[in-house]
Amino acid sequence: MSSPIQSLPPSLQTLLQHHPDFTINAKEGLYFGQTSLKAIAQEYGSPTWVMNADILKSRYQKLDQAFKAEQLDVSIHYAMKANGHLAILDLLAREGAGADIVSGGELKRALKAGIHPSKICFSGVGKTEDELRLAIETQIAQINVESREELHLLSKIAQSMGKNAAICLRINPDVDAKTHHKITTGLAENKFGIAYKQAIEVYKEAYELPNITPLGFDVHIGSQISSTDPYRQAFVKMVDLINEARNQGLEVSTLDCGGGFGISYHDEQEASPSAIAALMKEVLAPLDLKLGIEPGRWLVGPSGVLIGKVVMHKSNGSDVAPFIIIDAAMNDLVRPAMYDAWHGILPINPEIYRRPYQSLNIDGPVCESSDIFARDRLLPNLQPGDFVAILDAGAYGSVMSSTYNARPMAAQIMTSGNQSAIIQPRQTIEDLWKDEIIPSWYPKNS
Ligand SMILES: *Cc1c(COP(=O)(O)O)cnc(C)c1O
Asked: What is the catalytic activity of this protein (predicted)?
């Protein structure tokens, strides 16, 4: 049987070239790895998140093996804010991953998933006293301290508990990650980390403060970075810093290299694990450090999709492309509304691919102009009842969902081979208000 892919317009061919996990079968429609999305849509309805465990596992292994190929011992701490579902943490933990956390809630979630405290790093600019206490109590591997103020607070808390806190200083290297301004973190103007110029001074203080064990430094410059250049700039600055610290007699054993590895949403180049590993080998290996990374998006982003169903084909006059309203919305996947993010969209049912193509707007039903998934996208003419997949929705997707417009949280499915399982049932409408309380003193009409 010939695949309809031959007749796809160049834009969809490019999208598929950058998304090798997707195939279009003439009879069964869109496949995500070995998962028939048509079968999933029919069985579970929409909107529905689909996380492909096989793809996730193979991405983790690809990353892990890139470092092994360079004989580099690098600890992978999954930045679980990208998608903290227990099923995902469980899978990654089994592969050997640790966790990079940004809150006490994420700490408890990581522990719940069976990730050992010795594999947990804690980042974040506003850790509370309770969160720091929990981290010390649990004896996690390392707290990435983001300010002098936090360092002093941590020392005080650790002292009062009679325990030590192992720390890295998160340094802001003032390097432009050349990514979206809302996901850049390593410029001096960003709130993250300790200024590069103050790094040695604060590291010395860490040495002098009671109950603090300084391990070294941490640097995370942003997200969705596809070239190795910003990493090279940041690492080179860190090498200078570490040499300077060591020259001053300060021990540095650890460098946490951060995350931010980019993926191909559209036609961008995906960050290459082997290029990153080679760079780390070249620039960092001579320093004999314990190295770590904190990838989030790269692992889970391409491992998930969001399925939506067309509810309306709406024409607003001849000079504007038709509005295709689907039942997934910005409350499910907020990235387009929040970051102007571009996501690939592919029809799921095979027969759709045989229709004429036209320029379409794909929108959610929420009452906000920013509830847009695509503008002027060349797709086959979509009709009510058609299913579509929004690609690369595994990172910063379900975790950012809300119930805005009284829209229940979408179902979440995990697949492997031809198996599928619900990992989070679709929320019911009644769930939306089950914890809401009307005060008894509320003035009532008499
Ligand atoms: C968000 C975050 C990450 C992960 O970023 P990705 O772009 O998802 O890889 C890593 N480290 C820290 C400190 C973060 O805040």
From this structure: meso-2,6-diaminopimelate + H(+) = L-lysine + CO2
DSSP 4: G
Q: Is the separation of the CB atoms in 50 and 392 below 8 Å?
A: no
pLDDT of residue 316: 79
- Among 183, 217, 223, 226, which residue has the most ligand 1 atoms within 8 Å of its CB, making it the best to mutate? 223
Which residues are designated catalytic?
Answer: 367
- Among 294, 299, 392, which residue has the most ligand 1 atoms within 8 Å of its CB, making it the best to mutate? 294
Contacts of 271 (CB under 8 A, 6+ apart): 225, 226, 227, 228, 261, 262, 263, 298
Place of tokens 């770590």: 292
Q: DSSP strand E in 219-299: where?
A: 254-256, 290-293
* Closest approach atom of ligand 1 to CA 295: 9
The share of the chain scoring above pLDDT 90, in percent, equals: 91
Q: List pLDDT tens digits, range 318-362.
A: 789 999 999 999 999 999 999 999 999 999 999 999 999 999 999
The tens digit of pLDDT for each residue in 26-83 reads: 999 999 999 999 999 999 999 999 999 999 999 999 999 999 999 999 999 999 999 9
How far, CA to CA in Å, does 74 sit from each of 68, 99, 321?
8, 13, 49
What tens digit of pLDDT does each residue of 126-181 get?
Answer: 999 999 999 999 999 999 999 999 999 999 999 999 999 999 999 999 888 777 77
Distance 282 CA to ligand 1 centre (A): 23
* 346/348 Cα distance (integer angstroms): 6
Domains of the chain: 10-52+301-432 (2.40.37.10), 54-298 (3.20.20.10)
User: Is there an atom of ligand 1 within 6 Å of 52 CB?
Assistant: no
